[in-house]
Amino acid sequence: MAIRQKTWVHAFAAGTLVAMTAGCGVTVSDRAIAPSPNKPSSTVVSTAVSDPVAPGVKGRIKIGLVTNANGSSGDTENRLAVEGLRYAERTLHVEGSYTESTSSVDYATNLRNYASLGYNVVIAVGYLMDGAVRQVASQFPHTSFVILDDPLSSRPNVTGVTFRTAESAYLAGAIAGLMQHETTRKGINKANVIGVVAGMSIPPVNSYIAGFKQGAMKTDPTVHIVVRYANGFLNPAQGEALANEEIAQGADIIMQVAANTGVGVFRACRSHGVYAIGVGSNQTQISPQNVLTSAVKNWNSAVFAVIKDALSNQLKPGVLSLGVADGAVGITPPAKVVPKLFVQDVEALRSQIASGKIQVNSSLAASPPKATQR
Fold this sequence. Notes:
Blueprint: E1 3-5, E2 31-33, E3 43-46, E4 62-66, H1 77-92, E5 95-100, H2 107-116, E6 121-124, H3 130-139, E7 144-148, E8 158-163, H4 165-179, E9 193-198, H5 203-219, E10 224-229, H6 236-248, E11 251-257, H7 263-272, E12 275-280, E13 291-297, H8 299-311, E14 318-322, E15 329-331, H9 340-355, E16 371-373
Parallel strand pairs: 1-14, 4-5, 4-6, 6-7, 7-8, 8-14, 9-10, 9-11, 10-16, 11-12, 12-13
Antiparallel strand pairs: 2-3, 3-5, 13-15
């Protein structure tokens, strides 16, 4: 089934380098609803807002969103997804409700509840809900289901939304390449080496690496890139050891694509006075003095995009690919150590990606070959 790519830019794409990931600027009054007896470990919330169209009025589209069990504090996918729902409810006048799952065993029940209540679109947050979506979608063939960060395309009533993370990593790599010219700046040496510490050699991880390499070599064609795999995502000590090896090879900027293993990367960079780049969410707070930027997924923008499509009858089954042009991926504002001229250069590259002038390949094999992998 063909993969569709969005090309329009919506309200969440405000700003130059990253879509809005803070509050949406609207007042939402949350009203807790007592969970049904068969799912005591979940919380259902209606995001009711003042609107001239009363809830339940014929013709008003109803959106149900189910979070995964990873919590909703900080810049998590769950919090941002709910934020996107709230923004859509306020600006598009849809009726929204979300359920916070606290255990994976609740996924199917929570999705089924919305479908049985007649919600037009039911959104699942994250690939961890793949099995539940497959199961419930087959039980409710006339309900549209959306799963974020999962290329699910085998159900006629399911849209699998993917993030073109290579595009955000490209922008992060462009910053890393530009910073290699700042050899008089503390923390940047003359070796012209940058690095990546990755969890495992799997497509979602390698997509970041591919984009990072392309972006870095766009702004510094002579840069040398070292890549090491930790073969796991839960070992900070291993991440620190691999980062130390790369630093010993001259790397002064290291991107981590290793989840909890990446915590050790930040630790190593902080210890040696070099720089790090985060992925997934804004990771500046982990090491404020060392993180140059983070390549992020803007889950709020993705939710807003699919709801807008649903409202205009444009939500189709299959894979929907979202990227920089949609505000669905980007980078966080670069650290102050990054010269303003470099920020402008990266913004120009962002614009070229959004317009299609620059095509970022998500395949590691197709990206520039000049890298050492282990």
